[in-house]
Design goal:
The chain is mainly alpha-helical. The chain is built from four helices and no strands. Helix 3 packs antiparallel against helix 4.
Amino acid sequence: MAENNQANHAQGMLTGIMITLFAALIGVLAYGSVFTLAHYMGKDFGQLQNTVFTVLSVIVAVVLAQLLSRGIQGNRLSFMQAFLSGWMASLILGMFINFFFTIFIQITKMPPLQEGSFARMMMLFSMLGIFTSLILSLITKKN
């Protein structure tokens, strides 16, 4: 009986990790495709566009993580589970976007990112993830 309980717990943890990785992957694909398309079309991807698409990619990752977690658990997702899954998806999204920029800069021979940009990016995605996840967890909790 104890072995079965441990197996279910490990399977649930792996499912949660896979959900956050998948949600972050979808978010970075959306962000990266828009950024790459703008670069190759010669369009300006300035601060305003970067801010808008960063926030949109965080929203996509958080919503997808919370919806998939809710669907896996049979519509019984607690507030804390929803909040943490959305926040972790946002943090992983920040890592993926930094990885995207590292590859993109090497391919296009653009100037490298400033020193400390990874730390700033992680703080940004953590803050965005906390607020977005908190708001969406409260909204879905009411329903």
